[in-house]
């Protein structure tokens, strides 16, 4: 079949994308979260789908519509995201755009009341989904892409992160007070591969998504 596949497209490929934040409940009415809007991950899913891929989008809680024609699985916590990702494999490529919460708390069964001392949240580390998938034996996607949101030392941190996770590419971006990237409409990223550091011009999140999808198509061709 591969001889019949139009060059540069993703027809016949299955690609997994994670997007959005995760919410980690503290009690029935409160949670830990982060500022991710899901816009970048959802745009990447849409771009991959336009190139012909069958896309599975695993999304944390976002205020976005499910992208048309894309199987979207809704999850809340990092642990649910991990299970949904593992169930969606095998895939030819996986793009981990979600801003997964690093920790979860032991969830109180009743609303924590404000009487006396502030509660002491005992945080426990969440599964590292990107790292787990990057280190799979048989089910490892051929191309595994992570994102790295850093507030300082962008390239150095991204290179270390790439090595630590075992993924193929890292899309690195600076976040924090000096930028309006997280939750915003634009993004400014640097693609870190095994042998290259490629700064991309600042652009709308859908333009970044188009470019990344094209690069993925090229890599899988
Ligand atoms: N990621 C993941 N599962 C986690 C944490 C992160 O799959 N539990 C993925 C993210 O989707 C992203 C990449 O790992 O693609 C890097 O996330 P980041 O938060 O930058 O890395 P961490 O290893 O959590 O390091 P830190 O937050 O300490 O910088
Ligand atoms: Ca993290």
Low-confidence residue ranges: none
- The neighbouring-strand order within the major sheet is 5-4-1-6-9-10-12-13
Number of E-type strands: 14
SSE string = EEEHEEHEEEHEHEEEEEH
Helix content: 25-40%
End-to-end distance, in Å? 12 Å
The global form is globular
Largest sheet data = 8 strands, mixed
Strand content: 25-35%
**Rg (CA only):** 18 Å
Give the bound compounds. cytidine-5'-triphosphate, calcium ion
User: Which whole number gives the mean pLDDT?
Assistant: 93
**SSE-based structural type:** alpha/beta
Question: How many distinct helices?
Answer: 5
Briefly characterize the structure.
The chain has 221 residues and is of the alpha/beta class. It has helices spanning 39-50, 78-88, 129-134, 154-165, 205-220, and strands spanning 14-19, 24-27, 30-32, 54-59, 71-74, 93-96, 103-105, 123-125, 143-150, 169-174, 186-187, 189-192, 197-199, 203-204. The longest helix has 16 residues, at 205-220.
Task: Describe the protein in words.
With 221 residues, this protein is an alpha/beta fold. It has 5 helices and 14 strands. The chain has helices at residues 39-50, 78-88, 129-134, 154-165, 205-220, and strands at residues 14-19, 24-27, 30-32, 54-59, 71-74, 93-96, 103-105, 123-125, 143-150, 169-174, 186-187, 189-192, 197-199, 203-204. The longest helix is centred in the C-terminal third of the chain and has 16 residues, at 205-220. The site of cytidine-5'-triphosphate has 16 residues, from α3 and β9. Catalyzes two sequential steps in the biosynthesis of coenzyme A. In the first step cysteine is conjugated to 4'-phosphopantothenate to form 4-phosphopantothenoylcysteine. In the second step the latter compound is decarboxylated to form 4'-phosphopantotheine.
């Amino acid at each position: 079949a591969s001889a019949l596949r139009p060059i540069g497209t993703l027809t016949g490929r299955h690609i997994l994308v994670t997007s959005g934040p995760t919410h980690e409940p503290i009690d029935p009415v409160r949670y830990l979260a982060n500022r991710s809007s899901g816009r970048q991950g959802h745009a990447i899913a849409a771009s991959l789908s336009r190139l012909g891929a069958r896309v599975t989008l695993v999304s944390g809680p976002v205020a976005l519509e499910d992208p048309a024609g894309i199987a979207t699985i809704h999850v809340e916590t990092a642990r649910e995201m991990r299970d949904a990702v593992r169930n969606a494999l095998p895939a030819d490529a996986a793009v981990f755009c979600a801003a997964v919460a690093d920790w979860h708390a032991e969830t109180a069964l009743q609303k924590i009341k404000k009487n006396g001392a502030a509660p002491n949240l005992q945080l426990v580390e969440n599964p590292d989904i990107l790292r787990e998938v990057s280190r799979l034996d048989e089910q490892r996607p051929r191309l595994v892409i992570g994102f790295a949101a850093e507030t300082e030392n962008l390239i150095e941190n991204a290179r270390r992160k790439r090595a630590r996770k075992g993924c193929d590419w890292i899309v690195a971006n600076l976040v924090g007070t000096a930028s309006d990237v997280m939750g915003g409409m634009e993004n400014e990223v640097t693609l870190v591969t095994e042998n290259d550091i490629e700064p991309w011009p600042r652009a709308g999140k859908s333009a970044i998504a188009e470019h990344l999808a094209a690069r993925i198509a090229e890599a899988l061709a």
